[in-house]
Amino acid sequence: MSKWLELYKQLLTIIPESSIQLEESLCQHTYTRMGGPADLFVTPATYEEAAQVVRFARQHDIPITILGFGSNVIVRDGGIRGIVLSFEQLTDIRVSDSIVVAQSGAAIIEVSRFALKQSLSGLEFACGIPGSVGGALYMNAGAYGGEISDVLQDTLVLTSEGELLRLSKEELELGYRTSVIGRKQYIVLEAAFKLVHADAEPIQKKMEELTYLRESKQPLEYPSCGSVFKRPPGYFAGQLIQESGLQGTRVGGAEVSKKHAGFIVNVDQATATEYIALIHHVQQTVKERFSVELETEVRIIGEDK
Q: Is residue 1 pLDDT above 70, yes or no?
């Protein structure tokens, strides 16, 4: 603790005290409601503050972990060493003609609603994705036939050296639930979406239809990381899990959802260890029955307790 206390004091020279927490529990920052503490939890309010934190971490050889809304991530029970960087203070959304620019910490759902108010079409598919703009770019988030790569124009990122860099959509190498962002350790600061002017009524109708589908089919009444597995070629992960008879299977407080087999839900104060153990059990069972490898879509980060 003395090491992190000293680094905390040094960080106060570049970041306000209200934007740094020591030993912050991450269970309050993840959709699964699980996860141990972050040594230093930092929430910069400007791009320059973010850049200074990245340079500070590089200078002191401190690892940095970016945490968006924690909607598609599992933080292990031992927590995360070093600095956890959150952009929960960077949530501005603005528009210029048909281009909507949103900061990394804005909810992608809110960006889709903002686009609706501007009578701009293209982000309807994102009206139910429970993540931040930064997280959506990181994994090229998608739903109901649409994905970020369909509408992204460019993005502003920080490099691991703390330098600002604007990248085109092509430079991000967006694929199915993947991008170059993680591989090159880019930190998303904002994204520009190129949309299309349209009547607001059909946009709203489409968003209402997709919201109904999501609420009727997904187990939103429990904490979860969302869809756990990527879609295996030629199959649907949820169908394979369902046909393996795994719905309702539990490890501790973690359960394969009875409502949607592609979800694992925290029904009774599950630990990350229990949640991950259930993921592995599902993978093993599906492989034994169908000879199909289920690859996780969710990111698993941090250390075991």
A: no
